[in-house]
Amino acid sequence: MEITATMVKELRAQTNAGVLDCRKALQEANGDFDKAAAILREKGLVAAAKKAEREATEGLIGHYVHHGAKVAALVEVNCETDFVARTKDFQELVHDLAMQVVAASPQYVSPADIPSEVLEEKKAAYRQEMLSEGKPEHIIDRIVEGKLAKFYQEACLLEQPFIKDQDVLVKDLITSYIAKLGENIQVRRFVRFEVGS
């Protein structure tokens, strides 16, 4: 199948990948737009995984104050260079993450940041709840794991669905920016303020 410039342009607009990468992906997918986008996403995720080990010491502190000035957030997001920190894309990501903190009220950045005593308390409470409901012992551990996954999604910023697109987790959003900007990006910390609490 012939790959036209229009096809490449359309794929590039959707994925932000380079022209040559879009052409190669379309050729590999025999012109199938969805397959080509999936190929580019996969390549971007592989590239992002390689970058995840690199040190990120530059970045920005983003802020968002919700209408009415009753709720606000500060978020520190790090990247590798000051050059990337000054890009519009990076600044947009930082702002979106600050909005996410205001809207979704996470308590931790990732599951790794949850203190072990909090996790043990949650596990014990979930286990006790299942026992009191008379659930069979052999399935309780799976139910507890499911409830913990739900807790992570509510309490951890990186595990939450992104407020602007519920089909994308925040960690996947960040990964897409790593692929797009070519640098490791990490949410270092955040704080949320709410009047009266």
In short:
The chain has 197 residues and is an alpha+beta fold.
Describe the structure.
There is one protein chain. The chain has helices at residues 5-15, 19-28, 33-51, 82-85, 88-104, 116-132, 137-155, 170-181; strands spanning 58-65, 71-79, 161-162, 165-169, 186-194. With 197 residues, it is of the alpha+beta class. It has three domains: 5-51, Orthogonal Bundle (Helicase, Ruva Protein, domain 3); 58-109 and 156-194, Tetrahydropterin Synthase, Chain A, CATH 3.30.479.20; 115-154, GTP Cyclohydrolase I, Chain A, domain 1, CATH 1.10.286. It has a three-stranded antiparallel beta sheet with strand order 1-2-5. It has a two-stranded antiparallel ribbon with strand order 3-4. The longest helix is centred in the N-terminal third of the chain and has 19 residues, at 33-51.
